[in-house]
Design a protein that fits this description.
With 807 residues, this protein is an alpha/beta fold. It is built from 29 helices and 19 strands. The longest helix is centred in the last third of the chain and has 42 residues, at 735-776. The radius of gyration is 34 Å and the shape is globular.
Length: 807
């Protein structure tokens, strides 16, 4: 069976556990990724004489496996990698990590065991059937590892990786279309591990010609491996300092120019001038001004501007400071704005990047249309993200919204704006986004008159007009005009607001209409899902499904189309992605296969079994037993559930008796714990004694414990019988039935339930707001004063009766 993405990820991450302790993540990534590369090319090209990688004799992963337990394993692994490197012109690329380094890998048996265990983990992965092209299982695994390595590497060493979510935005806003030809060039002067370049190249169906430069030796090696793993072996990556020694030049010695450029340069580099003749830069990069000695942000930006053709387009990630800092940077910024090269600016959330926690922005460059440009399009996307450990992370919906709004220049209040040069000039060429876009939440203002006299301000209710347009009758069924002008009274108690809304005919109609949008989408794509077959591209499938779902809900009332889109994308990542990968590599018949994860000879498995039959543990990768049971064995399931309910009733009754009689003087106080054995022991102690009441209670408890135990045995037998029926059902499933169970009972039912929950959540927001307003103005000041007078009078009366008076 094909490797599931989640299993591949977990296996690769487990390999890192073998290396933790001797080195930090910025170092052990080199070992893990090197072995991943060798394993992949060995599986993929070991028997292919025409492959892009030649696997020489004694230079494969299989040769490494023969070294397990060998006292010289580290040195011999180095030699195998060296042979592979020499055969494919990959010296100083795949042989950067030293597998014989005792300081990092341990000495003697410690090194032997560590490397042997590491090889065992990779040996369990069959990468021969997984392509590093088009739909990219292995490339995605590489991306997964890079992100985790960056997370663990800490502030100073995490800059080799640009989060893939941010890379996607840059790739989609620089103007690549389906017509973009393969000979078009893309350049990254600070390419790190190459992930940003690859994301851009993927935007063109035909690919792009890739150029990159990276100063760090190990990171540039990762980039070369990354290119090969993603089927871009001709990509040219150069190792050197881009600012002081740019490699890509024309025959006349000037900088080579490119069609597209992207970059995530190191923020605010302090030593950027090293090796550069600032007063007479041969490439004339600093004609607009020389950036400050201790801040190289504009140095990289000006280099990229110079490296673009006259029709070139680019996108650069920079800290927000470049938008508003003064002095020489202010002069450079003013001149850049007047050149009209800046098409747009996208403000990102803080704490996205691994080298820093500060917020950054994307500056989009478009030289081609600069002569006609009169505006800069700005987006404040700082509030759209999710927490991911100690970092923030863009969700699929955040990425999609940014790209949609930017490419279509859609102005949204508090989110995006087309800012004219005149307005920018009035702000002294300061590009700080909050100067132009106010994304702050409106203040929830309290109405003092309402607090004093009661009644909900009509203005607060009118602010919910987007709901009242959809629920025209609900408003009058909840509110009625107050005697006080401009205020309304609530007809429903605050505790009944939510059930009133959920049971209202307006909501039921809204819920039905909203769900019908999903059902129509589901019906539209049934054939597409049923026609999944070996060789189908999973990423093409989810792209078609998700884009159409987004479009389907574009005009839905109250519901945010991007929230609905996120539901599908989350379900894809968590469940559906693995399912589709299996189906497109092994076919639908894999749905009637149960995978043995533990036989009775073994003792441990990291996977949770779905079925245990004769001590053998099985995993159902596509169809969970719960679906088989619901479809074929509902009566058996109900019988077990009824028996469990009966048993729980006995247990609850027993617990009540124990709680009632375990105090200091309780009849069960002599027992430290109420069990069958402790009761039997106590009954022996009471034999012949006059303790009828205690003996009676003990026997009652004993009987209940025995009854519960008998019920447990019956439940276990019934469950075993049901498990065996389910186990025998899997091989009998036809392909037609497998499709029904996976598509309808698993995928579509799950997504429908999630969308229904989102529909309910929207009304929950209305209910919460109505409840808050009602409770806020429920008790006016006059009533509070009357209550104080009344309670004070009662207290005075009680004090008088007690013979006390206030002093």
């Amino acid at each position: 069976m094909a490797i599931k993405k989640t299993e591949l990820y977990s296996s690769l991450w487990a390999s890192c556990d073998e290396l933790r302790g001797g080195m930090d993540a910025s170092q052990y990534k080199d070992y893990v990724l090197t072995l991943l590369f060798v394993k992949y090319v060995s599986d993929k090209y070991g028997n292919d004489p025409y492959g892009i990688i030649k696997v020489p004799e004694n230079g494969s992963f299989k040769d490494m496996l023969n070294l397990k337990g060998d006292k010289e394993i580290g040195d011999k692994i180095n030699k195998i990698i060296s042979k592979l490197a020499e055969e494919n012109d990959l010296k100083s690329v795949i042989d950067v990590a030293d597998f014989n380094d005792e300081d990092k890998l341990g000495k003697g048996k410690d090194m032997v065991d560590r490397l042997s265990n590491l090889l065992n983990i990779f040996d369990g992965l069959d990468l021969s059937s997984n392509k590093a092209e088009g739909d990219d299982l292995l490339g995605d695994a590489y991306e997964y590892l890079m992100r985790h390595f960056a997370t663990e590497s800490g502030k100073s060493k995490g800059q080799f990786y640009t989060p893939s979510e941010v890379s996607k935005i840059l790739a989609k806003v620089i103007g690549i279309t389906e017509e973009t030809t393969q000979d078009k060039t893309v350049y990254d002067p600070t390419c790190g591990s190459g992930s940003l370049l690859l994301k851009v190249a993927d935007e063109s169906p035909k690919g792009l010609t890739i150029y990159g430069q990276e100063n760090d030796n190990a990171t540039s090696a990762l980039a070369r491996m990354n290119m090969i793993l993603h089927n871009n072996p001709t990509a040219e990556i150069w190792k050197d300092n881009t600012l002081s020694a740019p490699h890509w030049k024309n025959p006349d010695g000037q900088l080579k120019t490119f069609d597209f450029a992207v970059a995530n340069p190191p923020f605010s580099t302090k030593s950027w001038t090293n090796g550069i003749n600032i007063s007479d830069d041969e490439f004339k990069r600093f004609d607009l001004g020389v950036p400050p000695d201790k801040n190289g942000d504009y140095a990289f930006f000006l280099h990229i501007i110079k490296s673009l053709k006259s029709t070139g387009k680019g996108a650069v990630i920079l800290p927000h400071g470049v938008l508003f800092r003064g002095n020489v940077e202010s002069d450079i910024r003013k001149k850049l704005i007047k050149q009209c090269y800046i098409k747009g600016i996208i403000g990102l959330p803080a704490n996205l990047f691994y080298g820093t926690g500060i917020p950054a922005c994307i500056i989009v460059i478009d030289k081609e249309k600069s002569s006609d440009r009169k505006n800069i399009f700005m987006i404040d996307a700082s509030k759209g993200f999710m927490k991911d450990g100690n970092k923030n992370r863009l969700r699929s919906q955040d990425i999609h919204k940014i790209v949609d709004v930017f490419n279509k220049e859609i102005e949204i209040n508090g989110y995006s704006k087309l800012v004219s040069y005149e307005e920018i000039e009035k702000n002294e060429f300061n590009l700080n986004i909050p100067r132009y876009i106010d994304s702050s939440e409106p203040e929830d203002i309290h109405d003092l008159f309402g607090h004093l006299n009661g009644g909900i301000p009509k203005a607060d209710i009118d602010n919910l007009d987007n709901y009242w347009k959809v629920f025209p009758n609900l408003k009058k069924d909840i509110f009625t005009p107050s005697k006080k002008e401009g205020y309304m009274d609530c007809l429903v108690e605050s505790s009944q607001v939510k059930p009133t809304i959920l049971n209202h005919s307006d909501f039921k109609l809204f819920s039905e209409k909203s769900l019908n949008i999903y059902l129509e989408w589901q019906k539209k794509h049934n054939d597409k899902l049923n026609n999944l077959e070996i060789g189908t591209n999973p990423k093409t499938i989810i792209n078609e499904l998700s884009e159409d779902l987004l479009n389907s809900f574009a005009s839905a009332e109250l519901l945010n189309k991007y929230d609905i889109y996120q539901i599908l994308m989350d379900y894809w990542v968590e469940i559906m992605q693995d399912d589709v990968y299996i189906i497109t590599q092994d076919g639908w018949k894999s749905g009637n296969t149960l995978r043995l994860i533990l036989d009775e000879k073994n003792k441990k498995t990291k996977e949770t079994p779905d079925l245990i039959i004769n001590k053998n543990k099985y995993k159902a990768d596509l169809i969970p037993p719960s679906i088989i049971i619901s479809k074929f064995f509902e009566k058996e399931k109900e019988a077990i559930e009824k028996m469990q309910t009966d048993k729980e009733a006995i247990t609850q009754e027993l617990e009540s008796i124990i709680e009632e009689h375990t105090g200091e003087e309780g009849l069960l106080s002599e027992l430290e714990k109420v069990t069958k054995n402790t009761i039997a022991t106590r009954l022996k102690e009471l034999k012949g004694k006059n303790a009828i009441e205690e003996i009676t209670l003990l026997n009652q408890c004993l009987k209940m414990i025995e009854n519960a135990s008998e019920e447990d045995k019956k439940i276990k037998l019934l469950q075993q019988a049901l498990d065996e029926k389910v186990f025998l059902t899997y091989p009998k499933l036809t392909e037609e039935k497998i499709k029904e169970l996976i598509i309808k009972e698993k995928w579509q039912t799950s997504i429908q339930n999630l969308i229904q929950a989102e529909i309910d959540r929207v009304t929950q927001q209305l209910a919460n707001r109505v409840k808050l307003l009602e409770e806020r103005y429920e008790i006016p000041l006059s009533k509070l004063n009357n209550d104080i007078v009344e309670f004070s009078s009662k207290v005075d009366e009680h004090l008088k009766k007690m013979g006390l008076t206030w002093v």
